[in-house]
Every structure is written in structure tokens, then in C-alpha cells.
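User: These chains co-purify. Model them together.
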Amino acid sequence: MATTARTTDRLLDAVQAGVTIYDLGRPLTVGMPQSPNHPPFGLTLPRRHGDMVRADGGSAANDLLVMGTHVGTHVDALAHVSHNGRLHGGVDAAAAQVGGRFEELGVHTVAPMIRRGVLLDVPAALGEESCPPGYEITPADLDATVCRQQTPVGPGNVVLIRSGWGRLFDDEDRTRYVGKDSGVPGIGADGATWLAERRVHAAGADTIAFECLPPGKGHSVLPAHRILLVDHGIYLIETLALEEVARDRVYEFTFLMVPLPLFGATGSPVRPLAVVSRD
Amino acid sequence: MATTARTTDRLLDAVQAGVTIYDLGRPLTVGMPQSPNHPPFGLTLPRRHGDMVRADGGSAANDLLVMGTHVGTHVDALAHVSHNGRLHGGVDAAAAQVGGRFEELGVHTVAPMIRRGVLLDVPAALGEESCPPGYEITPADLDATVCRQQTPVGPGNVVLIRSGWGRLFDDEDRTRYVGKDSGVPGIGADGATWLAERRVHAAGADTIAFECLPPGKGHSVLPAHRILLVDHGIYLIETLALEEVARDRVYEFTFLMVPLPLFGATGSPVRPLAVVSRD
Amino acid sequence: MATTARTTDRLLDAVQAGVTIYDLGRPLTVGMPQSPNHPPFGLTLPRRHGDMVRADGGSAANDLLVMGTHVGTHVDALAHVSHNGRLHGGVDAAAAQVGGRFEELGVHTVAPMIRRGVLLDVPAALGEESCPPGYEITPADLDATVCRQQTPVGPGNVVLIRSGWGRLFDDEDRTRYVGKDSGVPGIGADGATWLAERRVHAAGADTIAFECLPPGKGHSVLPAHRILLVDHGIYLIETLALEEVARDRVYEFTFLMVPLPLFGATGSPVRPLAVVSRD
Amino acid sequence: MATTARTTDRLLDAVQAGVTIYDLGRPLTVGMPQSPNHPPFGLTLPRRHGDMVRADGGSAANDLLVMGTHVGTHVDALAHVSHNGRLHGGVDAAAAQVGGRFEELGVHTVAPMIRRGVLLDVPAALGEESCPPGYEITPADLDATVCRQQTPVGPGNVVLIRSGWGRLFDDEDRTRYVGKDSGVPGIGADGATWLAERRVHAAGADTIAFECLPPGKGHSVLPAHRILLVDHGIYLIETLALEEVARDRVYEFTFLMVPLPLFGATGSPVRPLAVVSRD
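Assistant: Joint model of the four components:
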């Protein structure tokens, strides 16, 4: 039997007709750039092959993983940020975290995403390779990008904003991508409002903090987090790998992302995909 | 703008026409049943709301995650198991693990899976609610199941074998699902050969160990792991939640699974999905 | 030069004249009995010899330690327990823990202990090998023990109460020492008051919970913790190894214990010593 | 009863006559300077007061500790370093670490130390506040220091070498103490031989790496580790706090150090003490 035979399922037919998968997740490696605000990524082998060999010659190696949930490519659950003591929907933050986990608004409540995704390649619209350090991407920049690409953004979409900063992820100097001194480009309050008005489901960026960080200020205020997570219940995805989709000008795609069901957590590492049908 | 407008992408059209998503991953909670061979699942909030409030009234909570990679629903990379000192393809296990990570055959080399998936509901074919403890599912059982369901299994497919044991996952007695004393149902060497002959891409089960565990013997020998991982390079997925797809008789679907790109690890927690087009 | 020459320091002279050291700490091993209320003990080698060899042939192995601070032999800081929202001295528990660490009353505030220590071998006084499971050691038992041993207890002393339960620490069935179903012997509210009246500095036991646990009740109420930690600021030491000192009838000694200065923590693993001059 | 009454134990009498304790351990805090070669120090509260309140109003908070064993003030076990595949005594390093722990030469084999300790205040002898960055302390420097202090060093002693570098531990710039670019002062191969010839039991320093690090070279070769740990079985203690003992000119004392009995580990965090009788 040919397993690529036409089935009665439209989705499966589309999959079996052939798809191209773009990996939007960064590899998780010890020593990779990450925010100093979160527990660092660690991975080690407690058991190696040969430590314990079974009677039949078999042996198994295994891992211990230690990490914050906001390191590497990750999604922010709505429990992550509060404003004046309130989470999204007016939930009392202090009460919600009793027990050391968020039964409400934790990352286990984030449904898997299989949705229309749109890449907004901002520097391409600005005629640059990358937005400068600390540059605030404006609503006008977003409009210009949509216009150039002919990819309108609508309700329920997942919008990924490329600043070009992601090219520094693999820089030898691991502090460059974090950008504490230089600042990092991204949207600010106005860009967040632009996204909220379009009622997107989630928004992502190729930077650690998603939003614009002015030089030397770090994470002192994060207005886009407040507007998107707290005010509008829009999920944020950070540290995305967007260079490859941008290079191939894949601006519209099926966006796939499945957060781990970490019960009560404020975020989850993810490996999102952009998937398109092959010609 | 209607974002569900017909696009030029067949896959995105199928997605936007409506899909039903079945979650095949177990929630990750402190205290859930897991194999004692792996570091236990832990999750805690180092920072809670109110610990550090920004000038504008904003506050962020975050997590620390500590876990083995073979706990909860997870995938085994080919680096996980060796036989007589060799990994799949004859790779020398001792050499491959120098440095404390598997550059070859680590879980970062497992490509995201968007493939035809087949659920084999074995107890349904046997006329039972669940296979008995320690029962070895035979090739004849698998053939009978395929026949009853009319879902042939072919090259590149992902095959999920339901034993019914997954109904114990939420049992109050957390040791029942692990089944050390009782044994656990699953395929043995013969069932593994059946899968390998069909050249499947990956195989999963609703149990911790994937394969049949005789009563009281634990993981003393694991022939299916050897045949599938080492001999044939077929990935294994364990601790799947298969009750819901079985209940709805969804035997064929688009299987989605995206392992975390944990560089050099022997496995990864995953949250696989079975997706079907809505009528 | 003889380094054991008489110095001008009385303490050093006593040390150099010869001392016998009793180790009162349990080895910390993966899988040892511990309370299920605390993160389990884990230890692994991220780097092994040969993973990275220096130019000169040198190589270093190292460890990753993951554990609760109330596992193995450990001391409870005053921050560990609150009653009606108050820590010792009326400190507001909710306020004290903001920031995720106890600047006040954390284990870093526990000074190293070099003090008179007294072992109270209760079963020896009762004419038994061990107190029965769930037995509450009474003030009369403590008085009888002091009397038999001729070791009065006074202000500033460290008092170690042997119940004999510690002989189960190495039992093959790792659940016996924890004693959830059987109960565990120890003092109750009355015994705690007896200790508090004598103004001891710290009190210890050869059990996980220090105090009497009735069968099947687990840690549902812990009156001795309240009386000692909260009401009187007396430190508790748990999971002590007291069999050897008891065997040698060493009832009075120099007690040495140096908690790790874990800033803000509620406890610390320790390896206390009983030291006596050699004849 | 006066508990300070003269007992029949010489050591306890000396203790009860009054002692002054110098704390030679650094507080363990998140973000403190540490070697990038080891898993970073992390500490968090999984349970806070109020998360779970017992019927009687009681509540307990607890911790999760995640750390390398060579961070903060710590001792190196003999298992830590190998040379040409051999540990101290010719033990085969590869064989010794099978199972992921060192049954031989692990830190659980390091006996508690209650010994004569000698502080060698090298910069005081050199007429400086601190040795310069990258300065190699020579045998002549050590001799001059012993001579100035009139504190000969002999078999079984613990020798603590002050370079003055420890004053940078609390520097705002957390990279200064690590000293990767600047280099760090300490002994080299010759100083290690000087110590080995005197058959000391252990040697310590106020720096992370114990020995001299030339500017920019990091830990590329560590000859003193080889000579002391591998060739002579002499333990090393790093990141000591020596400013206070130096200030008070306490050059000879009872040295107390009790490593945690971490079964099979290559090192342990410690909090060593220098103790002297009060006048």
C-alpha cells in the first residue's frame, strides 16, 4: 500500500503531498546566550553507555535537564507578567501563585497552535540588513512591512517580527545578542497596540525580550509585555530563529507550536515551525 | 480582512478549513508516575509576582525546571540505547558520548515529525478494555488490529500502539502505572520486528517502557528497544495519552511531534498531536 | 619540626593531643530514604575524565548537585516553619520571603556550632533496642535517660535524642525509615517543652521528622517544630546517625556542626560530628 | 547545673573555656563569582509559607538547591583531577568513574579535618596589600612568610595561602574575582612542590583556582593541581575568605572543615573555620 495515497482527510492529503518545514527554534546548548534573569540552561548525562550493562549487552544513557522556562526559544504564558498585582482578566496574581504554580493561566493552558503565521521582515521593508541596536519598530514600520509583503495580519494569526538581531545569536561574544549595553531593537508600546488592535493570537520576535530595549536600560520597563500579555491575553514567543524564512521570503505559512504542558509554569521552551506546501 | 480566505497554500487552506486536535501528551506535574531510572520531574517558581516590582507596577514570575528527558511523554533519540557498545549504524557508544553529549544521534538530530499517524487499538481488536498486565502483544494481534480498523501501516508512518494501560496514569496509587510488580503490557521482540519490517519512522505506546514488561522483571532486558532504536533507527515515543483518540475511533491522522532541540541529549519531553480535518 | 609541639593555644593543644571523631551525618546517595515533601537528592557528573584533556595530559571531572535542603542529615533554620503567619520572634512570614529568600532567619544566620553536645539514648534507658513505631517519647523518658547516663542538659547545649529508628536507614525497603504507614517514634509537644525549658541551643534526632509521627498521619501536625523553631528559636537537626556514639556510650562530647551559608535558605545539609579527647 | 563546669574531656574543657571562631567560607548567593567551568549556583523556594497551611495554622517553606560542587568555598576530592588517565595512587580514571560516581577517591572519602591550620599571609611578607594579578608566589615568598610569622609548616597541617585576591570577591564587577583577562595570583609548580615536601594534609587559597593563572590563559594548564591532588594526594580548598584572619594576624589555629558526604562526587561545598582559644 502506498501510504501517500489520497485519504479522506484534507489535512493529511496536504501533508502527504509534500511540505517544507522551517525550524524557528534555536538549539538548546550549554553556554548559549540567555537572559541573566532566568535559571541557566544545563544538560548532563547522569548515566552513560557502559555505566550499567544488561545481561544481553544492552545499555542506556540518559539526561538531566536543568533550565529556566524562559531560555532558548520559548513562549510566555499569561501567568508570566502582572501589572499592579493583576494578571490577564483581572486575576489576582498573589492568589494565583499560592502553591507555587499557576493553575489558572499557566503554560499548560496554552493550546497547541496550528494557525496562519505571518513573518514581518521589518529590516527588509526599511531597506536594511538589520534594525539598529535599541531601535523602536514603529506602527508605520509594521504597516510598511505588511504593505511590501502583501501579507495582511488578522485575528487569530501568529505574527513574527524580524528585527535582524537574531543574526547575533551565534556570535562568539555571547553578550552581544543579550545586548545589555547596546540595547536591542523591537516594538514598543505603540507596536504592541498595533498588534492588539489586529487581535492576533500570539506574537514573536528574534530577540530575547521581544520588545525594544533602550541601550543600558535592560528590562527596567517592558510596556509591550503589559499590553500584550496582561491587557490583551496575547502570548509572546522569544528568541526565534527567523533568518531562514526571511531569506526564502516565506512570509505566510502554517505556524505550528506545541508548548510543553508544564503544569502551572509561566512559560515553556518551544520549537516552533513554519510549514508550507511544496510546489 | 478574512484571514481564513483561501490562500495559495494547500496545507494552510486545510488548516483554515478547520481541524480537530487531539493532545497525546500527558501533563507534566510534580509527583506524576515516572520510571525510577530517570531524574524526577521538578518545577518551582524562583521568582513570584511581588518579589520584584518594576517602577511602573509590572512584575514577572518565572520557573526552574529540573527533569530527566525520559519522564512524562517523551521521545527516545537513537543515542539512548546501545548494544554491545554500538549505537545505531555501528557508532561507537563510548566515543560518541565523550564530552557528555551526543553530537551524533542526539535528540537534536530528530527532525520534527509531520507524518501519517496510525493508532493501533489492540484491546479493541481483542474485544477487551485493556490488555492484561504483562501481556505481550503479538504480531497476530497487530495484524488483527490493522484488519479490524482497515488502517494498513507503511513506510515513514508513525504507529501508536494502544494497550489500554494508559488508563492507570491518573490512578491514585502512582505505582500502578509504573507496574513494577504487576508487569506492563506491550510488544516484545516479535512485535518490534513486525514494525521494523513495515519500515515505520517512529513507534509509540501508552506505557512508560513502550514494550512488554513481565511481572517483577522491570527493565532487565528490553529487546524491542534494541531492535527498533539500535538495529533499525526507529524512534520510540513513550507515556502517550491515547484514550481520547481511541474513544473517538480516530485511527488515522496527521501526527505532529516536535522534540526540543536539546543538543546532545538522549531524549526529549514532547507533546505530540493527532490532527484531523473537521468535516 | 614536630607540629604536635605544645602551642600557646589550649584548644589546639587538646586537638593535637588526639581526638576521636564520630560522624553523625548520613552519606548522601541517590535513592536514599528522604521525605517526599522535599526535592529529591540527585548527583551527576557533567564532565568525566577524558571529556576534555588539557595539552599536558590533565583532565578534570566535576559534579552537578540537585537537592532539597531538608534531605539527608540537615538542620532546619528558623525560617523553615511559621505559625499563624509568623516566624520566630513574630517576624511576618509573607514579608520575610519576598524575593524568594529569607534575609532574616535564613540558614546563613545559623552560626557554626562548637558546643557541648549530649546524646540521650532513650531506648537504652527504657531497656529496649529501639522505641516502637509511632511511640511518643515523654518527659519522664527523657528524665530517666538523663538520670541513667548522668548527663544533665543545660542552656546552650545541643541535645541529640536517639530513638533507635536510625537502624532502619539502610534497610533494603527504603520506605521503612520514612515510616509513613508505621509511624515513627520521637518526642511530642511535651518533650519539646522539656527541651525548651532547658534552653538548649539545638536539638536533633535519628529520624527524618525529628518528632513523633503517629501511624498513617504523616506530617499532618508537627507540634514540636512549632514549639522549638517558632516559639523558642531552637534549631532542629534531622536524620542523624547515632548508632555508633550510642554503641560506644559516648553521651557527652564536643558537638561540631557547620551549616552551609546558603543565603536565604530554610535549611542546609550538614555533617555534624561528636568529638572526644582520646585517653 | 552549670554546663561549663570542668568535664573529664580536655577538648570540651577547651571549648567551654571560650573560643573565637573565624568563618573562612563565602556566603553562597545566586550571582556570586564562580568558575564558568562548573554548573552555576541556584537556590529557590518551591514552597513558601502560606502555600499549604496545616489544620493547626502551621506552614513550612523549603528549598531547591542546584549547584556545581566546585562553586563557592569548596574542597577538591582526589577524584577531581587525573593525569594521563590516572588519579592519585595510579587509579585508572576511566574505570573509577563507571556508574557516574567515584566509589574510590570521591569526596565522601575525605575525612572531616580537625587539624593545625596555618595561614600564610604572603602579601604581608612582601610588604604589599595584595599580590598583583597573575603573580606567581614562589618558594622564597613562602619561606619569607613562614619566617616573618614564625609559623613553620609540617606534616598533616592545613596551609592556607593568602594572596589578597579575595578582596575582589564582593566587587561589583563580578568578573574581576574570576580574573580571566587579568590573571590571578597564586603558587605554581614550585610552590606546590614546596607544600608537598612539607607533607601537608590540605592546602587552600583565597582564589577560585588555587594556583597562579597567567593573564588571559584561564585554566589551560594547572600544574599545582597535578602535583598536589594527583602526585601527592593533598586536598585543595578554594575561594576561601582569609581577610579577617589576616587582619587579626591569626596565623596558627585549629582548622575545622567537614565536607558533605556526597557519595562519589569530585568535590563539596564547605564552610571551613579557624578556631582559637580566647585569652
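The helical segments of chain B are 10-16, 93-96, 122-126, 139-149, 175-178, 189-197, 223-231, 243-247.
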